[in-house]
Amino acid sequence: MLAGQGAAVVESYSGDRHQFEWGTHSVFAPPLNTRYQLFNVSGQKSARIAMSCNLPCVLNLFHDETFVFNNAGVFPDREGPRNHYAGEGEFIPVRPGKNMWETSFVPDVASFKLYDWADRGKGAAHIQLILANSVMHSHISEMPVGTYKKAHRHGPDAHIYIISGEGYSLLFNEGDKDFIRVDWKSGWIFAPPDMMFHQHFNSGTVPVRYIAFIQGNVRYPLMESRRKVYAGIDVDVKKGGNQIEYRDQDPRIHAMYVDEMARKSLTVKMDEFAQALSA
């Protein structure tokens, strides 16, 4: 939910109804093929909702709209316990960067507890979400003030929602001489192109938090590329992976960040990287 507040009713396959209230930064996933209805409880303000799903893939796979939209199939294992609609869930430990929270509803992703994961960036925190036991991946990440993530790439179906803070991303293909810069702030949504490197930078005064959605998760990787990610082998680009380590990135990237922060009179907190550059 991007703005506003309201309520939702989800009807289970058995006919039971689950009702809960949502607000800005709430995330929920109705179980596959269940009926649901959303209500704006404000008489003065609009509610704004964004949705990430795999409908285009499903339509391309079956090429039959009647089968997709008028299908009475039920999937009981997608419903989960009743308390999932109250914002509760289960923490499933795997390893840093792959720990999961299973639920159907997160009342506020802006305040949700995250866990340290420095493999993607200095001081970063992270949690994977399993929403309604679906194949859709979601994760919440946070970058501390004065830091940035490592460049990485993946397929074209990742939607990135900026929850808090401000900054920019650099996008580039392997071998490009120049970068494409995209400035963003809270409320922005963007999707990096297919297998294009992208690198996120916090250039503001508060931590940057975002939530991303993509097909294939820890439980159901779905595609080979996602299986490599969750197996932990889709890392250093020099070893056939899809992440550029700080030591291997274009030196201009760090210099650009230092200039950006100096312009705003903010402090860069990438000391270890700066020392490596000068060594």
Describe the structure.
The protein is of the alpha+beta class and 279 residues long. It has one domain: Jelly Rolls (Sandwich). It is 15% helix and 30% strand. It contains five helices and 18 strands. The strands form five sheets. Strands 5, 6, 8, 9, 10, 12, 15 and 17 form an eight-stranded mixed beta sheet that branches. It has a three-stranded antiparallel beta sheet with strand order 2-1-4, with no helix packed on it. Strands 14-13-16 form a three-stranded antiparallel beta sheet, with no helix packed on it. The radius of gyration is 20 Å and the shape is globular.
What is shown here, in short?
The chain is α+β, with helices and mostly antiparallel strands and about 280 residues long.
Strands, total number:
18
Radius of gyration: 20 Å
CATH topology: Jelly Rolls
What is the strand content? 25-35%
Identify the notable features of this structure and list them briefly:
279 residues; alpha+beta; Jelly Rolls; eight-stranded mixed β-sheet; three-stranded antiparallel β-sheet; 5 helices; 18 strands; 15% helix; 30% strand
